[in-house]
């Protein structure tokens, strides 16, 4: 009986529609929570901006506020000194976002209404996105609103946002800010994933512009593969998303090369986020697995290379020092193009990093 039900075309369509409605409801709820949280952050930032004027620099004002709020809400992590400062920056970047509904209902003045429409969008993206925008755009409100709208129009994740800011999209495309057209992020988009899983919300309760994270990573790997193969230094391409059976599991390596000159495999993992020490553990496991499964007599020890958006050099150095496997960490910059001529030698990590910064 159950097989007959599952094979029914109308039933299948109904199940699909229910799943879509459920996902849309999740996003709608998350957007509402996010909106309320951001408005609370804005009001707290407003209060801090006014009250802090009464205290001199060096009075540990933010530390005092953080400690006092944490006493009331010991399980909440949003009241750190850093986050409180960003709340103040948030208010000072958009000081006239006083009352969302009251402003939205004010349609007597068209200029005022346009400003209201522009400001409503700031409550529709995750706080983590705002942190990136505030740190990169500083007090440039037009630039900040440009990226806010681009996030909503294209469903950008934070990683994609960072890459477009670093590539100076605002300066390249012009400074016009478009109105917010979409009521909700696309169900399967990176923005929907981040807004429904934003830790700040839980606390409170890839290059065209429509790049998603997978496309961004694929583009980076395309350039990296081309770069290594064109060096003329013995790199042979083995596979991308190379499948490796490790015990009872399947692991997929981003890129696997064999260097004929060095007689060893080279495992490359690509991350579009900033360096995380956990990435080192993943790569060192892959390197060890290649050594144990693919390495044959006469092959030298496998080399690993981790390519990430940015890295804290001190943290990266400690991470490299903590493992015995030969691993390098490089970072990239998406704002330029790879030069045609590169040195005809086995590149060092510094040389690879230098070239990747030109992708």
List keywords for this structure.
359 residues, alpha/beta, Trna Endonuclease, Chain: A, domain 1, 5-stranded mixed sheet, 16 helices
Account of the 3D structure:
The chain has a five-stranded mixed β-sheet, sandwiched between helices. It has helices spanning 2-7, 9-51, 61-72, 81-93, 100-105, 110-120, 127-137, 141-154, 158-166, 169-173, 190-197, 199-204, 213-229, 277-293, 313-321, 349-356; strands spanning 235-246, 249-259, 264-270, 303-308, 327-331. It has two domains: 2-205, no CATH class; 214-356, Trna Endonuclease, Chain: A, domain 1. The model is unreliable at 103-108, 110-116, 176-181 and 334-346 (pLDDT under 50). The chain starts with a helix and ends with a helix. It is built from 16 helices and five strands. 54% of the residues lie in helices and 11% in strands. The longest helix has 43 residues, at 9-51. The protein has 359 residues and is of the alpha/beta class.
């Amino acid at each position: 009986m159950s097989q007959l039900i599952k094979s029914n075309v109308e039933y299948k369509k109904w199940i699909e529609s229910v799943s879509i409605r459920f996902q849309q409801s999740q996003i709608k709820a998350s957007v509402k929570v996010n909106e309320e949280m951001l408005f609370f952050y804005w009001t707290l930032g407003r209060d801090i901006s006014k009250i802090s004027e009464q205290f001199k620099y060096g009075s540990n004002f933010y530390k005092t506020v953080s400690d006092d709020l944490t006493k009331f809400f010991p399980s909440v992590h949003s009241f750190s000194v850093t986050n409180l400062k960003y709340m103040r920056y948030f208010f000072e970047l958009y000081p006239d976002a006083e009352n969302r509904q009251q402003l939205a209902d004010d349609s007597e003045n068209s200029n005022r209404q346009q400003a209201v429409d522009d400001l409503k969008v700031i409550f529709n993206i995750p706080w983590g996105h705002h942190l990136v925008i505030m740190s990169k755009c500083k007090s440039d409100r037009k630039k900040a609103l440009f990226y806010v709208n681009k996030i909503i129009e294209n469903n950008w994740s934070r990683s994609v946002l960072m890459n477009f800011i670093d590539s100076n999209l605002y300066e390249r495309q012009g400074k016009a800010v478009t109105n917010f057209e979409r009521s909700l992020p696309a169900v399967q988009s990176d923005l929907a994933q981040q807004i429904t899983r934003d830790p700040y919300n839980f606390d409170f309760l890839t290059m065209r512009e429509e790049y998603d994270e997978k496309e961004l990573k694929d583009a980076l790997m395309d350039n990296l593969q081309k770069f290594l193969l064109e060096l003329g230094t013995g790199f042979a391409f083995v596979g991308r998303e190379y499948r490796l059976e490790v015990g009872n599991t399947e692991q997929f390596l981003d890129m696997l090369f064999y260097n004929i000159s060095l007689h060893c495999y080279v495992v490359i993992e690509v991350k579009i986020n900033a360096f995380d020490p956990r990435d080192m553990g993943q790569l060192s496991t892959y390197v060890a697995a290649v050594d144990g499964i693919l390495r044959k007599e006469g092959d030298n020890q496998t080399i690993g290379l981790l390519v990430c958006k940015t890295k804290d050099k001190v943290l990266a150095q400690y991470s490299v020092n903590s493992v015995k496997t030969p691993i390098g960490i490089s970072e990239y910059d998406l704002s330029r193009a790879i030069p045609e001529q590169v040195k005809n030698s086995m590149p060092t990590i510094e040389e690879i990093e230098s070239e990747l910064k030109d992708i």
